[in-house]
Amino acid sequence: MNPINIEKHTITALVEDQPGVLNRISSMFRRRGYNISSLAVGKSEAAGLSRMTFVVEGDVRTVEMVTKNLHKLVEVIKVSDISEESAVSRELALIRVKSDVSNRNEIMQIVDIFRAKIVDISPETLIVEVTGDEVKVNSLVDLLGAFGVYEVMRTGKIAMNRGVTFDSERKN
Question: What are the start and end residues of each CATH 3.30.70.1150 domain in the chain?
């Protein structure tokens, strides 16, 4: 549980890749007053299907209601709450940080420690790319804040269960 007693739950959904699906799902969240702290969507391994990862704030009852409401939508194929399961999760962030000749080496050392990389350099700024969990990304943003962070762009969390799972709905 985080400091203000709001639990974060990770929910994945396999959905039809059609126009309007994201709008229908986000409208369902809005109508019911659910708070999404992170949302990532992308094509899946199966043609015509996309995978969504939601991070939802609330108690166990809220998560149960979210998953039940997602199941009601025609375009939703499968929903899983993977919060308590063994899963791999990552987030990607791009961070534009103030940099000049006097501090560039120090920033590069910090970036290296975080196994991040510099993807753009200009006379006044660097853009750093970092991949990892939310704590890692937040830590790097905080450290770079001492130099001056101009902009941060984050993908939101994506997650997948560890190990091999077989999805009976998609067997050919």
Answer: 88-158
Half-sphere exposure in the Cβ direction for 127 (13 Å, CA): 11
CATH architecture, domain 8-85 = 2-Layer Sandwich (3.30)
Topology of 88-158 in CATH? Alpha-Beta Plaits (3.30.70)
- How many whole angstroms separate alpha carbon 156 and alpha carbon 53? 8
pLDDT in tens, 5-56: 578 899 999 999 999 898 999 888 888 888 888 899 999 999 999 999 999 9
| 135 sits in which H/E element | helix 134-144
- Please give the C-alpha separations between residue 53 and each of 43, 45, 89, in angstroms, as whole numbers: 12, 15, 10
What does the block give as tokens for 39? 């949302």
Helix (H, G, I), strand (E, B) or coil at 30: helix
Q: Quick check: 115 pLDDT over 90? A: yes
